[in-house]
Each structure stands twice: as C-alpha cells, then as structure tokens.
Amino acid sequence: MVVIIPVYIFNEEILQLTKNAIESLGDVGLVIVDNGSPIGGGYLRSVSEIYLRSKENKGYAHAVNSGLSLIHNDLVAIANNDIRVSPNWLSVTQEVFEEPNVYSCHFRMTNYDEPFQYGKDIVYQGKERWCTSSFFVIKTCDEKGNLRKFYYDENFVNSYDDWSYWKDVRSHGLKQAYTDRACYQHKHSSTQVLLPTREEQNQKNREYFKKKWGMYPEDDFNKDFPDQMKKEYWEGFQI
Q1: Cβ atoms of residues 107 and 115 within 8 Å
Q2: Does domain 2-237 have CATH number 3.40.50.2020?
Q3: pLDDT by residue (tens digit) across 41-77?
Q4: Over 80: is that where the pLDDT of 31 sits?
Q5: Are 109 and 82 in contact (CB under 8 A)?
Q6: Would you call 123 exposed, middle or buried from its count of C-beta atoms within 10 A (0-12, 13-18, 19+)?
Q7: How far apart are CA 124 and CA 147, in angstroms?
C-alpha cells in the first residue's frame, strides 16, 4: 500500500499532527507532496519513500495529482495530514475491494478527540454523502487489470475539488464504498481554516463547479441523492 499525503506545514502544531498521522498509518510506503512548507522538510524527507516539494503552495488537487502520476500500485490511499487512522484499516480495505466495480473505500470519520469505535457494515451504494475525502483508498485497476486512475481538476483550489472528483467517478458507473469496520479521527481543516482567503476561494470554486457541471455543488448532490441530504450530516457516521 502506498499513501499520498499533501502537506503545508507552517507551525509546530501542524507538524505534530502530521507526525501523528504518519505514525498511525503503519507499515506503508509514503509519498509526501510538500506545498512549500516553511518548516518540517527534514522530517518529511526522512519518513517518505518519495518526497516532492513545490516552491509555492499550488493547492490540494495539484499535490494529489503529482503523487498519483508517480505511482503504479493497485491500491493507493490519499490522506490529509490532520488525521489518525484505526490500526485495522489495511485489512478492512481488502475486504471492501472484494466487491467488483468499486473504485474507492471510505471509512467512518470521527472528531479528533473521540476514541475509535467500530461497526459491522460495508455499504456499496447509498452512503455517498459520508464517503469523505480526508482519508480514502482507491483501486486503480479494474477486475481485468485495466487502468482506471482518476485525477483531480486543478482549476479547483482547496475546496469543491472532491465534489467534482467523485461526481466524475460516479459518472463512469463506479462505486464509492463506505464502511464503519474501520475509522479515522479528523482535526477538520486544521490548515485551511487559518488561510485568510478561504471564503473568497470557496466562492470561486463553487462558481467553477457550476460552470463545469451546470449547477452549484450542493444543488447537484441534492438532485442525485435527495434522501441523503434530508439527514443531519453527523447522523450518517453513527454506528
């Protein structure tokens, strides 16, 4: 298993979160894409099999694509650097991908300070709203060995890129699988909330989504999954 981690580390708290995330992943190969972090470069180089560094922060989509372009493994995880994953995630991933036509595996998300709790479900359709993008695994080849690797649209910068990504995946008839048999803790946009231009950029990304897909992202998702949108978001992660 190879894990791509995009990072932008600008204070000691985020550096420690990154260390926690990497430690929790276990025995995997790390591809770290550094968006020009002012600190932590020595540590990142020491733990990664591949370390890519940009002179400037080009955003999440560009970072993930840079990592994906270098990897030829069948299973690839993509992880934010403000998470911690449950120790059973690798074995659960194998279970999930026993089903054909599944492109991605998504795990139950909790707040960062909540203990791991495990359910018994694997849901192959009907939980798309809770198939989060902070930590997931993709299967880059189909059952016949044909490559099916999707890349992010880099016109999005740090928001709504995942809404577009998963719409593209589903439009090709592939499934997003959700499971609560494994889980992960998330600090929730610990880097993004500190960026002064976040709200302005979000609006630009929403407008670009509408230009690309014909309607705003929330309206588009509501059209495809109205029953899911009727529920409270955190209710969907309950066991």
Answers
A1: no
A2: no
A3: 999 999 999 999 998 899 999 999 999 999 999 999 9
A4: yes
A5: no
A6: middle
A7: 21
